[in-house]
Each structure stands twice: as C-alpha cells, then as structure tokens.
Amino acid sequence: MIRVFGPKVYYALHDSKLRGDVLIFFKNNPFYITINIISKSMHIDYSNIRGVVCGDGGNYSKDRGLARLGLLASKKIGRETAYIISQKGLKAAELLEKERESTCPTRKNG
C-alpha cells in the first residue's frame, strides 16, 4: 500500500483502526453520507467520526483526516457536509481489506 499511496495515507490508515473502519464503511456505502449518519450507523461517538473524517486536531491529526488525504470527497447539503468515497479512497479501502484478511488468523477445523 505504501508504494501506491505514499507514506501519509499508509500511516494514517495503519495508525488508527477506526480510520480504516470508516474508510471501509464508505466503500460498502458508496453514496453521500453525513458524519451524523455514520456515527449512528457505526455506533461510534460523533466527535471520533468527525476526527477521522476531517482531522479535528484533537485526538486526530488534521493532516490525517480522510477528506484531507483525498480519500473522501465532500459536498454541502443544506447546513451539513456529506462525504463520499473517492476513486483513490476506493482503491485504498480495497487494499486495506486485503491486508486485514491476510493478517487475520484462520480457524482450523477439528
């Protein structure tokens, strides 16, 4: 993944499991979604989702927000901002899923 997307994207997705989980959520739901809806759907606190998506500068670095890295695109809908996965984000999510599958221990029957 680091060769394809560079170190910023690689470290952003590997430093925070939640960041990767949110990106995969967007991959599985490829339409515009607000932070509030993501928070409710994933049962995760709004401020954590906001930090992952936007990089709020608190617990989540501003330069590692999924939108700032170009993995999500945004659009204003009324007073809220909605996000959708970009082509770059889709490719990163697919690679991340493959990495997670390959590192996941397999069960042995018997």
Provide an overview of this structure:
The structure is a single chain. The chain is α+β, with helices and mostly antiparallel strands and 110 residues long. The N and C termini lie far apart (35 Å). A hairpin with a 2-residue loop joins β2 and β3. It is built from six helices and three strands; from the N terminus they run αααβααββα. α3 packs across α6 and α4 crosses α5. The relative contact order is 0.19. The protein is 54% helix and 13% strand. The protein has one domain: Arc Repressor Mutant, subunit A.
CATH level-four homologous superfamily name: Winged helix-like DNA-binding domain superfamily/Winged helix DNA-binding domain
Segments where pLDDT lies below 50 for 5+ residues? none
Mean pLDDT: 87
Named CATH topology: Arc Repressor Mutant, subunit A
What amount of the residues lies in strands? 5-15%
How many domain units? 1
Computed structural class: alpha+beta
Q: In angstroms, what separates the terminal alpha carbons?
A: 35 Å
How many individual β-strands?
Answer: 3
**Helix percentage range:** 40-55%
The main β sheet shows up as: 3 strands, antiparallel
Overall form: globular
The assigned CATH architecture is Orthogonal Bundle
C-alpha-based Rg, rounded:
14 Å
| SSE order, one letter for each helix or strand | HHHEHHEEH
Pfam family, one: EarA
